[in-house]
# Entry
Amino acid sequence: MSAALLVRVLRDPAQVGRLDADGWNRLLAAARAERLIGTLAFRLDDIAVPDGVRPILTDAKRDTAREAQQALWEADRAGQAMRGLGVRLVLLKGTAYVAAGLRAGQGRFIGDLDILVPRDTMPAVERALIAAGWEWVKEDPYDDAYYRQWMHELPPMIHVERDRMIDVHHTVLPLTARQTPDAAAMIADAVPIINGLYVLSTEDRIVHSVAHMLADGDMQGGLRNLWDIHCLLPDADPAALEARATHHGLASHVRQARRLAAAIYGDGACLTLWDRLARARLLARNGWGQESRKLLVFAFYLRSHWLRMPPLMLLRHLWTKWRKGHRPQ
Amino acid sequence: MKHNITLRIGPATFRIGSAWPQPIAQLAQLYAAYPDVRGAVADFTVRLQPTNLLRRVLRPSIFITGDHGLADAAPMSLAHGLLAAEMGMNLQMALGWRRHLLLHASSVEKDGRVLVMTGESGSGKSTLSALLGERGWRFMGDEFALLDCDSGAILPFPRLVSLKNRAIDVVADAVGEARMGPLLNATAKGDIRHMVPRSDAVARMDQGGMPALLLFPRFGHAADVRTLGQGEIFMRLTQASTNYVALGEPAFTGLTRFVRQVPARAIDFASGEEAFAMVDRLWEELA
# Structure
């Protein structure tokens, strides 16, 4: 399993001393597939690597530097578009880590701009973004209605000139999920960072990342999520984190994330059976960058839907999507 | 993956894996004269995998992907596996190469100086570069010309030449059957046949040269030569580049210098002979 090789090297970069060319190829393919190549490049900064490897790492670092610059510019543009609304704009995920200069942001791949705003300001935010050049991506009326009625975010929008996506969240998890984190408290306790933009508090950053990884989705890209969490954890006081996670109804998820982060990137942890399954899912990547353990991966895909909505609603949703020609990957 | 091969083309090394043996066997045969890079760390991984489990054996269908891929890439028949592998390598370059500015252009060299030809698919740039490579020029590449933003040099990327439809017989007549790959019938781009570049193109694939002339060829029109403004040339070249934006300021600086220093012409021609005469004359006058 090459994902196992990848996490071993992220944990202890000196391990690359033992790799032959085949090992390097497997490591690089897994790192690219998990979108951890930039992180790997930073981890290997002071380590001797073969001649053919250094340029690959340099390219990866240059790409992440450009992504960080673009992400900050998008955040600035969104802030500009919403200026005058009196709405507190909270940056989430990669853009937030880069804006706050956190270790989790170093070498991180950043895709879309994710922001959190109070739910009752959504119509005004939507209008302001559209006026500033963002437009809808999804044409499908079912998808649009689905997002608006049940999701924790607006349907994705893309900027007409810059071709960059924005996800506008009003809470952390889909409205149909079992946990209901306190988004209002997250926004109220957010900290200002630059030019009227905010990031979540130290504890909320972790809770948000954990919710995204363990209470939502099928853990695709989970190794990167867990790396974020691993980097964010040392900044938080454990008791304060536990209290905050309990407040959001995500205490057991945060505890599991801490065990997984310690087991995969840290000094080890005592894992439950469920933790072991999650770990096996996270490490399902072979040396060609392909997903392996297909049955387990599919089981987590099913679980992600189970988590998102009650059974009857899930049946109706799957039936609608199937008729529209959607098939699981 | 069970079937695989590692190839180096110019500065880039590819590890190509396939669920089926045929594409790898064809690559091994056509790239036999290229450097042996077994045991090298590859810049890119390319994968030719079944579009789904069933399609490994039943009407085999290839999904082209790798380190970089497109989710909506059209599936390809196993009979076109060689083309799929070439497309897979191009995809990695187009989306992932960062060490040079990538120009969608063919290039040939003479006396250390380089002629760059850019244009859309069907413009004749591939065929022209392949034929010039048989007429005293060194073939450097038919798909990508790599502009070094620091030195201003063009570096070769001499992969197999991909010839389409009418160009196939013209080039096969010029180079002989021994250097031609299998005929791939009825691909999305019509009939395709690959040609192995001359041995000097492969032997010197690490040697670049300074660009001396830029042409925008257009096949199938009455003979004509036009000048273009530097602004238009610049814009056309940014459109012909897949990594201009990703490289940022160095690409702007490098491309600005290229446009200022390299004379350029748009040429229309209706036959190969016309094109050769124009190229010789413009090279004489401008380069």
Residues 2-323 of chain A form a domain with the Beta Polymerase; domain 2 fold (CATH 3.30.460.40). DSSP finds 15 helices and seven strands in chain A. Chain A touches chain B through 21 residues (CB under 8 Å).
